[in-house]
Structure formats: structure tokens, C-alpha cells
Design brief:
Layout lengths: L8 E5 L3 H11 L5 E5 L2 H10 L4 E4 L8 H14 L15
Helix pairs in contact: 2-3
Length: 94
């Protein structure tokens, strides 16, 4: 990757550390900056600090779940001239 090019950032959000590690492993060879968050609240703080090309978020998390976080991020994006199309993911748990 060209050192002067802007590196795309992806936000991965899941309360399951194993899922976050798996996502980081899958994305490692793609020259992307992967930022992780372990809750919807933490994801919201990340979105306030920087823009992301893609947000991959678990739908089922304690506290602010993926659906609520996506709704809040979408509301913010409407007022900040950016686009956000939520597609929350769901980790299959036993």
C-alpha cells in the first residue's frame, strides 16, 4: 500500500473477544486499520472520535445493543453529512 494513501478504517464491535480476534485475523491481510470496541457504548465513543469506512457490529450485546447503537450512529450521520447503512451482525452463541 502506498504510504501516502489514506488507510481505510473499519470498526468491529462485539462483546465476544474471540469474535473480535477472528475479524482482525480475517482483515489483517487487507491493509485496513481495524479498530475494535467491546460494547455499543464504546462503539459510539469511537464514532465520535473518527470516521469509519465500515462498521461491523454484533446485534446482541449487553447494554446498548447493536440495533440501538446503529440507530444512534445513523441519527448522528444525518447531522454530520456522512452516510451510514446499518447491517448489524449476530454471533451465533450456544
Amino acid at each position: 500500500m502506498n504510504a501516502t494513501a489514506t488507510q481505510a478504517s473499519i470498526l468491529a464491535v462485539d462483546d465476544d473477544t474471540r469474535s473480535l480476534m477472528a475479524l482482525q485475523g480475517l482483515l489483517a491481510d487487507m491493509s485496513l486499520r481495524v479498530v475494535t470496541a467491546k460494547s455499543g457504548d464504546e462503539a459510539l465513543r469511537c464514532v465520535l472520535r473518527q470516521n469509519f469506512a465500515v462498521i461491523l457490529m454484533d446485534a446482541r450485546m449487553p447494554g446498548v445493543d447493536g440495533f440501538e447503537a446503529a440507530r444512534l450512529i445513523r441519527e448522528r450521520s444525518r447531522t454530520h453529512r456522512s452516510s451510514f447503512s446499518p447491517a448489524p451482525t449476530r454471533t451465533r452463541r450456544p
